[in-house]
Amino acid sequence: MPLANLLKRESMRFAAVLLVTLAISVAGPNPALGAAPQHHDQVPGFFRLQVGDLEVTALSDGVTVFDPHWLTGKKATMDGVEKAFHEDRHLLDGAENGFLVNTGKQLILVDAGAGTWFGGGAFGHLANSLRSAGYTTDQVDVVLVTHLHSDHIGGLTTQDGQRVFPNADVYVAKAESDFWLSPEIAAKAPKDAKPFFQSAQAIAAPYINAGKWRTFSGSEPVMDGVQLVPLPGHTPGHTGYEFSSKGQKILFWGDIIHAQRVQLQHPEVTVVFDIDPTAAAATRNQLLPKLAREDVVIAGPHMSFPGLGRLRKEGRGYSWAPVTFTEQWIGQ
């Protein structure tokens, strides 16, 4: 048989077998593939944002639900909040965030999370988030503290008194430091407030002993490109930090907002942790419209992660416009 005819016949036989196989596979039962296993791990808890020449990295320390009993306001407002919370259990969802700023010359951490000093184990992830973001704790040069509540400074120190950031200088307002680190004031404090004094003193001690505890007063600059923003009411020396670079700004505003969805709509609502609730509400009422007008990027420790966004005026209150997630490195 000529070779050409042989190849033609074999080709036709192969095609016939292939067609029969396909017909069987289509017409016959097709066993289901095994179900893909679920993956319960999440992405690392960090998110980067460019502000001018600054690299800002949000670091998750954990998530929580704010206790509705920690909010105070007019009865009609609070009755409405309580009703809304029963209808929507996510109304008071919150977060604990810290923020890392790489200026190109220094690595600056703004607030250090709770560590193991607050939250009953819900927090304490900031150091791991920092490592996931590509940095180590010994690389941090400066820690700027908005105030000395343990959920903002607990991440500075371990329970056995070791500095988590061994090479960092810690900066805090003098009024804040003088208040929380005073044994005399602590002795006179109400019973419920005493743990805040005790934790602040224990957390600060290793940095004080190492000569790494720095205080400031007034509005003098603590470093280039950083403006101190006094935010009175929450604590005696509650301070925000505004970073500027190439005409862009970002404000790290500390505890201006705790319960995001409630206090943006009702800025007059305060929290039981405010030492001077009237001043805290006044500060919020002065600051929010300014930020909404100026379109400033805000970094909020208790805003939903990554805690970065802008304010928009909405009715009698405000709405939060979070930064848009992107896997690309872009400026804001």
Brief write-up:
The protein has 332 residues and is an alpha/beta fold. The chain has 9 helices and 15 strands.
Describe the protein's architecture and organization.
Strands 1-2-4-5-6-7-8 form a seven-stranded mixed β-sheet. It has a six-stranded mixed β-sheet with strand order 9-10-11-13-14-15. It has nine helices and 15 strands. It is an alpha/beta fold. It has helices spanning 3-27, 75-87, 126-132, 150-153, 174-180, 183-188, 194-209, 260-263, 277-294, and strands at 46-51, 54-65, 71-72, 93-102, 107-110, 142-144, 169-173, 213-216, 226-230, 239-245, 248-252, 270-271, 297-299, 308-314, 317-322. It is globular and about 50 Å long.
Q: How far apart are the first and last residues' alpha carbons, in Å? A: 76 Å
Parts with pLDDT < 50 across at least 5 consecutive residues: 15-24
Helix content: 25-40%
Mean pLDDT: 90
Quickly give the structural class.
alpha/beta
Q: Report the β-strand fraction as a percent range.
A: 15-25%
The profile of the biggest β sheet is:
7 strands, mixed
Shape: globular
* Helix-strand sequence: HEEEHEEHEHEHHHEEEEHEHEEE
Strands ordered across the widest β-sheet:
1-2-4-5-6-7-8
Discrete helix count? 9
Oligomer: single chain
Number of strands: 15
Using only CA atoms, what is the Rg? 27 Å
Key traits:
single chain; 332 residues; alpha/beta; seven-stranded mixed sheet; six-stranded mixed sheet; 9 helices; 15 strands
How would the blueprint of this fold be written?
Layout (H helix, E strand, L loop, with lengths): L2 H25 L18 E6 L2 E12 L5 E2 L2 H13 L5 E10 L4 E4 L15 H7 L9 E3 L5 H4 L15 E5 H7 L2 H6 L5 H16 L3 E4 L9 E5 L8 E7 L2 E5 L7 H4 L6 E2 L5 H18 L2 E3 L8 E7 L2 E6 L10
